[in-house]
């Protein structure tokens, strides 16, 4: 263990915040889905990576600014997510079955991505890919900064909707006691389609952020599963602010671990946290 | 206003209600009493739309509501205070009340309704932001009734409001129920506690093992042997 | 017997395949066969915990990987003779598994999807530890210079023979567990763990046992596989392929059949191999994913179940129970005959029993006695604590205070399965049979685990038949609980409660929902139960039955005892009348 300089440590923490923001962004969709719809949606990762590849392709072929691709990707994914939910809703799956089912979708998506784009890593080349902002001795890369801004924005939006709008209250009520919620006129089927679509749209946004900040390959999808689940469980299912906060905590812990020991120890942080949470407070989940 | 016409309800093959016919007039408070297992909650749940009758019809102001999905019953003017309260425990009192007034017609009058509910249950004024799960039994019952009133119903279904409450709190609760009835809302009250139910009702009927065994004005019913037999077996 | 054919077939098949290396097939085919056997071991071993007991694990990769690295370290770095590393690999994997299980199984909420995620996390933690310590350290482990034991003409065929032996062993173990008393307990845990515990199955130990066996076999496969690939890395060993493929194979083949996962394993291996050669290799994973999706949606029970269904004779549905509805509500029940002696000696003594839930006092200092051979009625308004009493005495809930003396032993606070072994049985108000076990096996399970606890399935089934005859359900022995109506399910509950020959039976509203005729039959049955020496505590609301059956009654109100004595007399007492009807009636 060699203690790094303060600057390096601070840069690590900052990097952890950025990574954590992405964990939180991905985790928000999974957490809302799990907490409010009682489905564990691994297809979320497939949606994110599909969006990442779509963004990459659109920039490559159409020379669009990556931000503009959001205009296509977000609505398209909303429809995809709602459609998938509509299909599977008729089968009345348990959370375990939905875990297995959506895992199957991940496999199918991986194949599709590999078919079209091969297994080689792809890097999105954008106009601001290399730009940075300087804050004293620290560097803030623009793509990562944008990810952070997006993450904060959607988190706040989700918070406002869940806490202060009738739709949000209806979703929370249905999740807790569906028949009684229905007796007050809440149409759960319609609301859940809306929510499923929104979660998929969030995945789309996350995917574009991934494309901007990292190189993508199909098999990389799986690398995110563990750490995002740790984020969701630490942050709390169905919570709006939880995943972002938890994501940043995990991201920073990983980054500091990497700086102080070595990068390969990083996964230990999130997975150990996951195990500890599962054993300590299973009642808080599901 | 409400007409239940020869309905039969079953859970799978287990029959729970047979040949039930009821009429509730506008503004009336009808009590349904009977021992445990008689089918009272089943009857209320059927009127509320959670169960579909295997035979017979349920008419609300002439419209057949038995065919409607559960989330359309509120539009028809029915609000339910479920057995055991079944509040949304992770949500605050205010949020529970908001859910009650989810439908557009009720939402438009939300502020007015809230005022009325708080006047009826002043104890809730200081507890609007408390998570419903942290309230006492009596306070939870108040929120449950308030939540239903927020829907501005024409028919209020009350399922065992005295369950788990001490006699003192029960008396308070029924005072409030009487006020609601006086304000003109039609009420169907299901209760195991015969004495207190009969004291507030205009009419009552006794349910035993899925059938109505007696019916009439509270004064008459009180002394009928059917009640003692149904509850005490003697 | 038809069952015995299976192990003979497995052994015979194994011997036959032993001879294969003589044929000197091209390496492609030997690899294929090796891989098929490899997946048979992994899928079948996974199924022993996850399929039989229902605890879906996503961590099979961890235990497999533990075996891989155990063998690799011992053979590659410490130069052990390879065959000796295999038992150690199995042991290491089992030890890790039991370590995880010992903690995870203690936590009541960790089931279903949470257990799956926990085991997945364990895989990655293990991978990280292995990658960062001298076990691997990063560059991977080379096993090129480890001599392959010369079991066959070539190296590949030797490994093939080792995996063949492992596969035969695994299949036999799977078969033995499936048809043993242990396996019956696992299936009960799968269907309803809490009910199994109350019925006497030591769920914690049983789950650990299944996990240990499952991990040991995975570790064994891992050890052999280490030499097969001869260069191992953490990325290849601990990735998600193993855990998810075994899930797919088992679901496809059928998790309740001992050979189901093996069938799935062979099918998927064939499919994957069909894609390997062609340029559409990429589509292989997609096809597997698609099959998983279709499997979950349309065939959640797997292929083998479909074969089983066809073999069993079709049982006609019982006639609908509407005919007797026109009878009058009250049927006269003869009062209890005075001649049956109730001894003064108590079989159950409850002292100051208390139980609270989040501040609500459900039971408050309850003190009562049940005498040998008596039928004690437990009455009271809704919410008075009757069901809580039954749940606490039978061990479903842990009491907050008080003692429960059964024949001189204080059983308060013991785990539910010990209380069942001590001789208390209960029925559930809404029947909770094990839905995927036949009527006969439902009752046999109780006979095997509660009370004395018979040691073999045959003995359990014999005893079960006796009680099915007693409750007139013998004609339905082979049927699943879904083929029974409510009346029959209640009788099944009774048969299950009696099969262990308990000292005391707790009946929770056994008559609710029955027609008058059915009630009549049930009352007669309860009398017969008492007549052969069992004491009964009887929670009921059907007052006719209470009056006719009980020797004494106890009335609860708001969690405390209100009154006790002879039925007709107690129900006239003012305090009791008030509790039920309110003040004005006293």
Question: How many distinct beta strands of chain B?
Answer: 10
Largest sheet: spatial strand order of chain C: 8-9-10-5-11-12
The largest sheet of chain C is: 6 strands, mixed
What fraction of residues of chain B sit in β-strands? 25-35%
CATH topology group of chain B: Rossmann fold
What best-fitting shape of chain C do the alpha-carbon axes yield?
Answer: elongated
What is the fourth-level CATH superfamily of chain B? P-loop containing nucleotide triphosphate hydrolases
Largest interface: A-C, 44 and 46 residues
Number of helices in the DSSP assignment of chain C: 23
Trace the largest sheet of chain B across and list its strands: 6-7-8-3-9-10
Q: Whole-number average pLDDT of chain C?
A: 84
Strand content of chain C: 5-15%
* Class by alpha and beta content of chain C: alpha/beta
How many whole angstroms does the radius of gyration of chain C measure?
A: 29 Å
In terms of quaternary structure, the protein is heterotrimer
Low-confidence stretches of chain B: none
CATH class value of the largest domain in chain C = Alpha Beta
Unreliable spans of chain C: 311-339
What Rg of chain B is obtained from the alpha carbons, in whole angstroms?
A: 17 Å
The biggest beta sheet of chain B is recorded as: 6 strands, mixed
């Amino acid at each position: 263990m060699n203690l790094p300089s303060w600057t390096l440590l601070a840069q690590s923490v900052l990097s952890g915040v950025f990574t954590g923001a992405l964990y939180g962004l991905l985790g928000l969709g999974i957490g809302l889905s799990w907490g409010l719809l009682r489905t564990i949606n691994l297809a979320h990762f497939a949606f994110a990576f599909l969006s990442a590849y779509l963004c990459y392709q659109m920039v490559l072929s159409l020379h669009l600014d990556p931000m503009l691709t959001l205009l296509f990707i977000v609505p398209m994914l909303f429809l995809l997510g709602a459609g998938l939910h509509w299909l599977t809703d008729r089968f009345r799956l348990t959370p375990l079955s939905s875990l297995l089912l959506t895992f199957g979708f991940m496999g199918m998506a991986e194949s599709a991505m590999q078919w079209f784009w091969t297994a080689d890593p792809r890097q999105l080349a954008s106009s601001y890919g290399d730009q940075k902002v300087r804050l004293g001795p620290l560097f803030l890369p623009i793509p990562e900064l944008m990810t952070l801004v997006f993450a904060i924005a959607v988190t706040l939006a989700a918070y406002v909707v869940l806490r202060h709008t009738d739709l949000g209250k209806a979703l929370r009520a249905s999740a807790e006691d569906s028949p009684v919620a229905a007796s007050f006129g809440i149409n759960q089927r319609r609301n859940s389609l809306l929510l499923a679509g929104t979660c998929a749209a969030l995945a789309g946004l996350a995917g574009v952020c991934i494309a901007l900040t990292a190189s993508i390959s199909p098999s990389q999808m799986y690398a995110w599963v563990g750490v995002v689940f740790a984020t969701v469980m630490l942050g709390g299912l169905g919570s709006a602010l939880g995943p972002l906060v938890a994501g940043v905590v995990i991201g920073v812990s990983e980054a500091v671990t990497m700086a102080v020991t070595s990068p390969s120890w990083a996964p230990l942080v999130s997975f150990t946290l996951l195990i500890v949470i599962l054993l300590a407070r299973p009642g808080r989940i599901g | 206003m409400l007409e239940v016409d020869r309905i039969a309800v079953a859970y799978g093959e287990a029959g729970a209600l047979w040949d039930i016919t009821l009429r509730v007039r506008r503004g009336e408070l009808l009590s349904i009493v009977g021992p445990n297992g008689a089918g009272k909650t089943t009857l209320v749940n059927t009127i509320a739309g959670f169960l579909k009758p295997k035979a017979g019809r349920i008419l609300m102001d002439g419209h057949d509501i038995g065919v409607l999905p559960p989330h359309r019953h509120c539009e028809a003017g029915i609000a339910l205070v479920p057995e055991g309260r079944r509040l949304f425990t992770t949500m605050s009192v205010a949020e529970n009340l908001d859910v009650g007034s989810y439908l557009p017609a009720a939402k438009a009058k939300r502020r007015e309704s809230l005022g009325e509910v708080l006047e009826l249950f002043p104890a809730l004024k200081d507890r609007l932001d408390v998570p419903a799960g942290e309230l006492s039994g009596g306070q939870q019952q108040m929120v449950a009734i308030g939540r239903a009133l927020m829907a501005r119903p024409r028919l209020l279904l009350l399922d065992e409001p005295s369950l788990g409450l001490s006699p003192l709190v029960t008396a308070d609760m029924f005072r409030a129920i009487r006020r609601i009835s006086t304000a003109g809302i039609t009420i169907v009250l299901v209760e195991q506690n015969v004495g207190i139910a009969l004291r507030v009702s205009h009419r009552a009927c006794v349910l035993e093992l899925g059938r109505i065994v007696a019916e009439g004005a509270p004064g008459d019913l009180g002394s009928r042997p059917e009640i003692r037999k149904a509850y005490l077996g003697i | 017997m038809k069952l015995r054919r299976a192990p003979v077939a497995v052994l015979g098949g194994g011997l036959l395949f032993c001879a294969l290396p003589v044929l000197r097939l091209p390496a492609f085919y030997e690899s294929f066969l090796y891989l098929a056997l490899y997946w048979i071991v992994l899928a079948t071993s996974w199924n022993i915990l996850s399929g039989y007991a229902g605890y879906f694990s996503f961590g099979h990769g961890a235990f497999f990987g533990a075996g891989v690295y155990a063998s690799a370290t011992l053979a590659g770095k410490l130069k052990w003779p390879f065959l000796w590393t295999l038992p150690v690999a199995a042991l290491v994997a089992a030890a890790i598994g039991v370590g995880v299980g010992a903690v995870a199984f203690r936590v009541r909420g960790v089931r279903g999807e949470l257990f799956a995620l926990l085991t997945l996390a364990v895989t990655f933690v293990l991978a990280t530890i292995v990658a960062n310590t001298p076990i691997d350290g990063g560059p991977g482990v080379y096993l090129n210079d480890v001599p392959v034991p010369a079991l066959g003409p070539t190296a590949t065929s030797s490994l093939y023979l080792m995996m063949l032996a492992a596969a035969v062993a695994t299949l036999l173990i799977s078969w033995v567990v499936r048809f043993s008393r242990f396996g019956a307990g696992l299936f009960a845990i799968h269907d309803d763990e809490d009910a199994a515990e109350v019925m006497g199955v030591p769920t914690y130990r049983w789950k650990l046992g299944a996990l240990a066996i499952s991990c040991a076999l995975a570790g064994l496969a891992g050890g052999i596989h280490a030499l097969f690939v001869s260069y191992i890395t953490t990325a290849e060993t601990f990735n998600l392929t193993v855990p998810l493929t075994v899930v797919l194979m088992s679901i496809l083949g059928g998790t309740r059949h001992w050979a189901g996962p093996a069938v799935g394993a062979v099918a998927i291996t064939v499919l994957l191999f069909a894609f390997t050669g062609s340029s559409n290799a990429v589509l292989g994973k997609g096809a597997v994913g698609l099959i998983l999706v279709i499997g979950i949606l349309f065939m959640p029970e797997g292929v083998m179940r479909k074969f089983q269904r066809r073999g069993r004779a079709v049982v006609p549905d019982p006639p609908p129970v509407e005919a007797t509805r026109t009878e009058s509500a009250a049927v006269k029940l003869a009062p209890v005959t005075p001649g049956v002696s109730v001894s003064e000696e108590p079989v159950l003594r409850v002292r100051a029993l208390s139980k609270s839930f989040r501040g609500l006092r459900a039971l408050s200092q309850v003190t009562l006695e049940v005498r040998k051979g008596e039928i004690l009625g437990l009455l009271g308004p809704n919410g008075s604590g009757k069901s809580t009493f039954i749940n606490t005495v039978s061990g479903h809930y842990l009491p907050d205070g008080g003692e429960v003396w059964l024949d001189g032993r204080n059983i308060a606070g013991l785990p539910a399965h010990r209380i069942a072994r001590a001789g208390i049985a209960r029925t559930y108000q809404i029947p909770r049979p094990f839905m995927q076990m036949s009527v006969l096996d439902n009752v046999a399970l109780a006979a095997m685990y509660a009370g004395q606890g018979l040691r073999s399935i045959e003995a359990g089934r014999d005893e079960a038949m006796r009680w099915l005859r007693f409750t007139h359900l013998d004609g339905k022995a082979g049927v699943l609980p879904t083929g029974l109506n409510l009346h029959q399910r209640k009788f099944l509950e009774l048969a299950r409660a009696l099969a262990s020959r308990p000292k005391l039976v707790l009946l929770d509203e056994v008559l609710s929902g029955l027609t008058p005729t059915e009630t009549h039959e049930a009352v007669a049955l309860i009398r017969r139960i008492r007549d052969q020496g069992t004491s009964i505590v009887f929670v009921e609301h059907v007052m006719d039955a209470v009056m006719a059956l009980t020797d004494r009654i106890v009335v609860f109100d708001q969690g405390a005892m209100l009154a006790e004595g002879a039925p007709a007399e107690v129900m006239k007492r003012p305090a009791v009348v008030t509790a039920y009807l309110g003040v004005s009636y006293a």
